[in-house]
């Protein structure tokens, strides 16, 4: 699955004429996409959000924002700032992956039979 996502993003980014550094943009796009999907997975698996679970999820989102916003930290991880057309595909695929995770979670929850 990860290889398919990487291949799709590499095709979409290399075909875009506005992208100057395709390799760095591709790496940053994949990191962004997988981070969005993994954060949503943490959110789904920690339901119902109570005080400790909510703090853990909140801290995950704060780390995500810190890594992508602050330039010294993002350059340490090799993340470049993505422009408009470069940012569209990881966000769109991230949104689709969040919808898929949510659908799988709800279907799994609906199909579970009570033990009693």
Count of DSSP strands: 0
Describe the sheet with the most strands.
none
Strand content: under 5%
Structural class: mainly alpha
Proportion in helices: over 70%
Helix tally equals 5
Radius of gyration: 17 Å
Order of helices and strands: HHHHH
Structural features, described:
The chain has 116 residues and is mainly alpha-helical. Helices cover 78% and strands 0% of the residues. It has helices at 2-15, 22-45, 51-69, 71-76, 84-111. Helix 2 packs antiparallel against helix 3. The chain is flat. The mean pLDDT is 84.
Features:
single chain, 116 residues, mainly alpha, 5 helices
In a nutshell, what does this entry contain?
The protein has 116 residues and is mainly α. 78% of the residues lie in helices and 0% in strands.
SSE order and pairing:
Elements: H1 2-15, H2 22-45, H3 51-69, H4 71-76, H5 84-111
């Amino acid at each position: 699955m990860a290889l398919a996502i990487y291949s799709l993003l590499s095709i979409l980014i290399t075909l875009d004429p506005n992208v100057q550094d395709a390799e760095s943009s591709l790496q940053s796009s994949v990191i962004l996409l997988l981070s969005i999907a993994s954060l949503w997975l943490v959110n789904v698996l920690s339901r119902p959000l109570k005080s400790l679970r909510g703090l853990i999820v909140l801290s995950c989102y704060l780390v995500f924002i810190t890594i992508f916003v602050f330039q010294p930290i993002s350059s340490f991880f090799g993340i470049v700032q993505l422009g408009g057309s470069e940012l569209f595909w990881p966000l769109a695929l991230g949104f689709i992956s969040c919808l898929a995770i949510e659908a799988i979670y709800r279907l799994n929850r609906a199909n579970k039979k009570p033990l009693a």
